[in-house]
UniProtKB/TrEMBL annotation:
<dbReference type="InterPro" id="IPR007676">
    <property type="entry name" value="Ribophorin_I"/>
</dbReference>
<comment type="similarity">
    <text>Belongs to the OST1 family.</text>
</comment>
<protein>
    <recommendedName>
        <fullName>Dolichyl-diphosphooligosaccharide--protein glycosyltransferase subunit 1</fullName>
    </recommendedName>
</protein>
<keyword id="KW-0732">Signal</keyword>
<dbReference type="GO" id="GO:0018279">
    <property type="term" value="P:protein N-linked glycosylation via asparagine"/>
</dbReference>
<keyword id="KW-0256">Endoplasmic reticulum</keyword>
<dbReference type="Pfam" id="PF04597">
    <property type="entry name" value="Ribophorin_I"/>
</dbReference>
<keyword id="KW-0472">Membrane</keyword>
<feature type="transmembrane region" description="Helical">
    <location>
        <begin position="468"/>
        <end position="489"/>
    </location>
</feature>
<dbReference type="GO" id="GO:0008250">
    <property type="term" value="C:oligosaccharyltransferase complex"/>
</dbReference>
<keyword id="KW-0812">Transmembrane</keyword>
<comment type="function">
    <text>Subunit of the oligosaccharyl transferase (OST) complex that catalyzes the initial transfer of a defined glycan (Glc(3)Man(9)GlcNAc(2) in eukaryotes) from the lipid carrier dolichol-pyrophosphate to an asparagine residue within an Asn-X-Ser/Thr consensus motif in nascent polypeptide chains, the first step in protein N-glycosylation. N-glycosylation occurs cotranslationally and the complex associates with the Sec61 complex at the channel-forming translocon complex that mediates protein translocation across the endoplasmic reticulum (ER). All subunits are required for a maximal enzyme activity.</text>
</comment>
<comment type="pathway">
    <text>Protein modification; protein glycosylation.</text>
</comment>
<feature type="signal peptide">
    <location>
        <begin position="1"/>
        <end position="19"/>
    </location>
</feature>
<comment type="subunit">
    <text>Component of the oligosaccharyltransferase (OST) complex.</text>
</comment>
<keyword id="KW-1133">Transmembrane helix</keyword>
């Protein structure tokens, strides 16, 4: 549980909830603005130095652009544009921009701007908090993730064969501005990178890329004009599952009377790796258990839960799955599950897990009738190969009568697509419970444990409504039974 000082600091941030709810839309992006179809980013900046780092170490791509921008216009400027293809925008998530040399500046606002729906080029607009004066420089750190980034090659493999993936990108970092100097680094989880596009070198370097262990480096390159690209492709070994969750529904139900917070998560999971070229052989799989060779099949999923979690359960479309293990002590609470069968490339596995936790671990009562709830927005598996989430729905079900519901989350704003308060009715409810429903797209497990903070009020009369209704209903039942029993039905 956070300290009271942290909770007090967070309360001021909760006022952002109303504004965020009003700016979100169900169309797919919470921060999409429209521009004229003739829009072209003004050439007011120059990239003085740029380092583009691409991490292919997990089953999603993480890209980091560290760039020194310079204002070459006569007037101060505060809008920096980054180009993406339309396909990349649909798979883009987790965008965060900051000043590399001034951490106190916080995160910069970033939004996808659409100027022509038929164009293959779309833009991410970054709003600098302070306009950059003419001739001045600023160092930006831009981080984002791309889902569904790989294609297996070959597309089908034998059960015991290694899996190889391909990834295509540009050796020159795409930019709408002139770049004076740049290089691109690509990192892999394995040093086995048998195929990659080679480019002519420059200076003392005869050929790009330079390979050092599990890293390839394209560049440094001399000045490149705006819009310059150099398509390249890499093929690398990835002997791990390519775990993709197409849809996650996460329910968090708060009970004041029970002093409990109940969690339930429903997954639709896919393996997006290489398919099997022949039927699955159960005998070979059982034999391999003795010498544990590397395999791209998903055999086990681990869920680190908050300390104090209890009563875990694990089900799939058939019913309860007994192949699970829960380890809980004062330092950890770890749920390990094993699917009914190993999940190979192209296979699907929907399942549900749930658990309970003491409300005091997440809930705090403030002055009067106010409460504040602090829970992780996303928990989920923690795997060495990583997990990507295409669609996430988080539903926080509050006690009946909750009102004045606000929220704040440290999930990147660009990933939030919708947020609204609905009514959820369950046992013994009269008016129903307030349920905060937040939808997000294109998240990865790097955002595990990012906070979701919800504040709400429960008036005293609302808090005792259910006990009064239960007591009143019982009394009516007893009185009705007594009256009926007293009626003389004899003639």
């Amino acid at each position: 549980m956070k300290t009271s000082a942290v909770f007090s600091a967070v309360l001021s941030l909760l006022t952002l909830a109303s504004a965020r709810s009003s700016t979100t839309s169900s169309s797919g992006s919470s921060s999409r603005a429209d521009l004229p179809s003739t829009f072209t980013p003004p050439q007011v900046f120059k990239n003085a130095n740029l380092v583009h780092v691409i991490s292919a170490e997990k089953n999603y791509i993480k890209e980091t652009i560290n760039v020194v921008i310079e204002n070459i216009d006569k007037a101060a400027q505060d809008e920096y544009y980054l180009p993406f293809t339309a396909d990349q925008v649909s798979r883009l998530g987790g965008v965060e921009v900051k000043d590399r040399k001034d951490a106190s500046a916080g995160l910069f606002a970033a939004e996808v701007v659409e100027f022509d729906p038929t164009s293959d080029t779309q833009y991410l607009r970054i709003q600098l908090p302070t306009p950059l004066k003419s001739g001045a420089q600023q160092t930006l750190g831009i981080t984002y993730y791309l889902l569904k980034a790989y294609k297996p090659l070959p597309a089908s493999i034998k059960q015991e064969e290694s899996q190889f993936l391909t990834f295509s990108f540009s050796a020159y970092c795409p930019s709408v501005y002139t770049t004076s100097k740049q290089k691109t680094e690509v990192k892999f989880s394995s040093a086995n990178v048998p195929d990659y596009t080679k480019l002519p070198g420059s200076g003392d370097i005869k050929q790009f890329p330079q390979k050092q262990g599990s890293k390839l480096t394209y560049g440094p390159f001399d000045e490149k004009p705006a819009g310059a690209v150099e398509p390249v492709q890499v093929r690398f070994e990835f002997t791990k599952p390519v775990t993709h969750v197409s849809h996650l529904e996460r329910d968090i139900e708060v009970s004041h009377w029970g002093g409990n917070v109940a969690f339930e998560e429903r997954y639709t999971l896919y393996h997006r790796g290489a398919n099997l070229s022949s039927l699955f052989n159960r005998v070979k799989w059982a034999q391999s258990a003795y010498y544990s060779p590397s395999t791209s099949a998903l055999k086990e999923i681990k869920f680190p839960l908050r300390v104090g979690s209890v009563d875990p359960y694990y089900t799939d479309v058939i019913g309860n799955v007994s192949t699970s293990r829960f380890r809980s002590n004062k330092r950890e609470a770890l749920l390990e599950i094993k699917p009914r069968y190993p999940i190979f490339g192209g296979w699907k596995y929907p399942f549900t897990i749930g658990w309970n936790s003491d409300a005091k671990n997440f809930l705090r009562k403030l002055s009067g009738d106010s409460y504040i709830l602090n829970v992780p927005f996303l928990e989920g598996p923690k795997q060495p190969e990583g997990v990507e989430y295409e669609e996430v729905q988080v539903r926080v079900i509050l006690p009946e009568g909750a009102e004045n519901i606000k929220y704040y989350t440290t999930i990147p704003a660009l990933s939030i697509t919708d947020a609204e308060v609905k009514v959820h009715k369950t046992f013994l409810d009269t008016i129903g419970r307030g349920a905060l429903v937040i939808k997000a797209r294109n998240l990865v497990d790097d955002f595990r444990e990012r906070e979701l903070i919800v504040s709400y009020d429960v008036p005293f009369m609302a808090s005792i409504r259910k006990p009064l209704i239960v007591f009143g209903s019982a009394m009516v039942l007893f009185v009705s039974t007594w009256i009926l029993g007293s009626v003389n039905l004899k003639f």
